[in-house]
Write a structure and sequence with these properties.
The complex is a heterodimer of chains A (about 425) and B (about 300).
Chain A: H1 2-20, E1 25-31, H2 37-51, E2 55-61, H3 64-77, E3 86-90, H4 91-100, E4 126-127, E5 130-131, E6 133-135, E7 141-146, H5 147-152, H6 165-179, E8 184-186, H7 192-200, H8 218-233, E9 236-238, H9 242-250, E10 256-260, H10 264-268, E11 277-280, E12 299-303, H11 310-321, H12 325-335, H13 348-351, H14 362-372, H15 382-398, H16 403-418
Parallel strand pairs in A: 1-2, 1-3, 8-9
Antiparallel strand pairs in A: 3-12, 4-5, 6-12, 7-10, 7-11
Chain B: H1 2-38, E1 41-44, E2 47-50, H2 54-61, H3 63-94, H4 102-114, H5 117-127, H6 133-140, H7 154-182, H8 186-194, H9 199-210, H10 212-227, H11 231-236, H12 255-265, H13 270-295
Antiparallel strand pairs in B: 1-2
Chain lengths: ~425, ~300
């Protein structure tokens, strides 16, 4: 008994010493996209191990689906082992994880000064006044356009920073007529544009109680109208899948792209188009209260509550993602990643003109638009709603269902998927 | 003495099979039983609610589940007969002892079956895009005037899926038939030929009746395979950024894809997903029984 006690004391003493000497241990991080998130985390890891040589950081690169599958299965099984310290979660999914696995993620409220982050990023990672994530990249949306095609069509971009989607479609017709190019490319059954449009109007698929709100949501009615008008006008080149979509603008087939800022890497993948691109604020939805700024995608870092070196992981995120201005300049230049930690946007990389975009200071614009993005609570059923509305679109395009009728049907489908 | 030997032999027997018993138990029986148990709960991530048969009741009111079963039945009714009939014809042709370059043809037909599911789905997606190989060819040959909206139209997307699956699995079934044909003595064909039976008559009067057990086997195999269809629709339906619906108007939604979505894409409900899996098992059993009955195997 005595011996056991002394061993216990020794362990306590030992732990005390280790703690006093600063945090050490291994941080495991799960994320996807080797050219973006993984590479950025590697940069962050290199910087942190310089500050704290006792830390060891392992970054596990997986497909996004695999991260989600592993996280879901481990958390649902209730096992405490095998969890990473830090995991990347897409913003649309954040609340779903936080609510489905209460207690699984660390409450970071007192560790970070959240006033320094873009406000729209906090909406979905906050539950009952507790913030659970470290906001990472922004999906601030832009209207990327080809200067040469617009000029050819006789369109003056300087007058286009405050237009609606309807005007956009009309412009598309002019572009098509004058240049023979499509205005844009898109999958007619993809909900990305829908989400961009809803957020610019400051609404989402759900009401304040989290119930599906399709029919009585003017923004949603208008957004479906936009989809329909777009299909009817023939200004959008129909594509299926990411590769065809990227090929459409890399191949010079389209005059513009409306999407998140993360697309810059793919646009720049075609060096022959350097100088020919420009960026405008996204066209807004023609409803009350809509602004010319929105968001598509983006993700954030979360710390697992039951992971072994939780405190070390928090310290790591704090030191790099909420302190290192230079880090944010580096990832902007190298990866085109716009962080959502606002102090970083005063850095030099943000104010530099970009020759690829005709020497436009695009990141100054993006930073400005980012602060205008209406905060929206994504709730936990975004993908259910997305599937419901997009599943009904063939009948909208063919004219079999009116927009209101289709929204009514989709709302029922959404409730059905949620299991209400 | 003999008894002792018998005993030790038994002991070693158990030792040898214990490993596989442990693994089968762990990776097959345990998940089977646990998922049955799970199917009586409605889960939301880590939270579990006992609902009894609630999940099974929900299935019958779930439009998406019903749609997924409908989709799969359409594919089953159209794709499986086409594929099996093609496989039979190929097998019959390849079984001809006078045929030259048999090995080449056999390999060519079987090769799709060993190609990676994902790789071939991706290639098919490219070939069947609006400006893909297939549309270009058909336009050049003046068979069509407008490009066919293969993966953008609910009807054509199913056609694409059926073509892709037929390409992938015909060779596999052909191999099974070829093996079966080895057991049919060549003499029967020779006798039939002497009696004046043409190739067509031989095919319908000899090959098909004698291959019946194997045809039944492949039908059941294909039925179960179709019911569990996952990779192809998942790949063909992958959208620009997220793939909001599974194919246009969810035309490629299969029960397996739905199970995946319920577990991982939507709010994770493993309980309901388990209930769907068990429903698929029940449907497979019913369809197999019907096929047994139709083929008259039980007599």
């Amino acid at each position: 008994m005595k011996k056991r006690f002394s061993v216990f004391m020794l362990v306590v003493l030992f732990l005390g010493i280790v703690n006093a000497a600063g945090l050490s241990g291994k941080i495991t991080i799960w994320c996807w996209d080797p050219n973006f998130n993984v590479a950025i985390m590697e940069e962050a890891a290199a910087r942190y191990t310089k500050i704290n040589p006792n830390a060891q950081i392992e970054i596990v690169s997986m497909a996004k689906e695999d991260v989600e599958q592993k996280l879901n299965t481990i958390l649902a099984s209730g096992v405490k082992k095998g969890l990473p310290e830090i995991v990347l979660i897409e913003d649309y999914n954040a609340k779903k994880y936080l609510e489905s696995y209460p207690g699984a993620f660390a409450d970071l409220t007192k560790h970070f000064n959240y006033d320094e982050f873009a406000p729209y990023k906090l909406e979905f990672m906050t539950i009952k006044d507790k913030v659970y994530g470290v906001p990472f990249d922004s999906g601030v949306a832009g209207w990327f356009y080809r200067r040469d095609y617009f000029e050819q069509a006789g369109i003056d971009p300087s007058k286009l920073d405050n237009i609606t989607m309807d005007e956009y479609i009309e412009l598309g017709k002019i572009v098509k007529e004058k240049t023979g190019k499509y205005m844009q490319a898109g999958d007619p059954y993809d909900g990305g544009l829908m989400r961009t449009l809803l957020q610019c109007a400051g609404t989402w698929y759900f009401d304040e109680k989290g119930q599906p709100n399709f029919v009585n949501n003017p923004a949603m009615v208008e957004a479906v109208n936009v989809y329909k008008k777009m299909a009817d006008s023939g200004i959008s080149k129909e594509v299926t899948g990411w590769n065809e979509w990227v090929a459409a603008f890399n191949g010079g087939e389209v005059a513009s792209v409306i999407t998140g800022v993360w697309i810059i890497g793919s646009i720049k993948a075609e060096p022959s188009q350097s100088g020919k691109w420009g960026v405008l604020p996204v066209p807004r939805l023609n409803v009350q209260g809509a602004v010319n700024a929105s968001n598509l995608g983006g993700s954030s870092w979360y710390v697992l509550q039951n992971s072994e070196n939780r405190d070390l992981a928090i310290d790591f995120l704090k030191e790099i993602y909420a302190k290192d201005v230079d880090f944010y300049q580096k990832i902007l230049i190298d990866r085109g990643a716009i962080g959502t930690w606002l102090p970083a946007q005063k850095g030099e990389a943000y104010v530099a003109p970009d020759p690829f975009f005709g020497n436009q200071k695009i990141y100054v614009d993006f930073a400005k638009w980012m602060e205008m993005i209406p905060p929206v609570d994504y709730g936990i059923y975004t993908y259910e709603a997305d599937a419901a509305i997009m599943g009904i679109m063939p009948d909208v395009y063919s004219g079999k269902l009116s927009v209101v009728e289709a929204l009514k049907r989709a709302e029922e489908q959404c409730k059905n998927l949620i299991g209400l | 003495m003999a008894n002792g030997f018998e005993k030790s032999r038994n002991k070693w027997g158990w030792v040898f099979i214990s490993l596989s018993i442990i693994f089968i138990g762990l990776f097959i029986f345990y998940p089977l039983i646990y998922s049955l148990y799970l199917s009586f709960f409605s889960t939301k991530g880590a939270m579990k609610n006992f609902v009894g048969f609630g999940n099974y009741k929900r299935l019958f009111q779930d439009n998406y589940f019903i749609l997924s079963v409908k989709n799969i039945l359409v594919i089953l009714v159209i794709q499986v007969p086409i594929m099996l009939f093609l496989a039979l014809i190929f097998a019959f042709l390849l079984n001809d002892p006078k045929l030259k370059f048999k090995g080449v043809f056999r390999t060519a037909l079987f090769l799709p079956a060993v190609s990676s599911l994902i790789a071939y789905s991706v290639v098919f997606k490219m070939m069947f895009s609006s400006e893909g190989l297939i549309n270009n060819m058909l336009m050049k040959m003046h068979i069509i005037k407008e490009p066919i909206r293969w993966l953008l139209d609910p009807f054509w997307s199913k056609v694409t899926l059926i073509i892709a699956m037929t390409w992938r699995w015909t060779g596999y079934n052909m191999m099974l038939y070829l093996a079966g044909l080895q057991n049919i003595p060549q003499e029967i064909y020779e006798a039939a030929e002497i009696d004046g039976a043409g190739k067509v008559a031989q095919f319908f009067k000899i090959t098909i009746p004698l291959l019946k057990p194997i045809i039944l086997f492949t039908t059941i195999l294909s039925t179960i395979g179709t019911l569990q269809l996952f990779d192809e629709p998942m790949m063909l339906a992958a959208g620009v950024t997220t793939g909001s619906s599974v194919g246009p108007g969810n035309s490629l939604l299969t029960p397996s894809v739905y199970i995946y979505n319920v577990s991982f894409k939507y709010v994770p409900n493993f309980g309901y997903a388990s209930a769907i899996s068990y429903m698929i098992v029940i449907i497979s059993v019913i369809l197999s029984l019907i096929q047994f009955k139709v083929a008259g195997e039980e007599k």
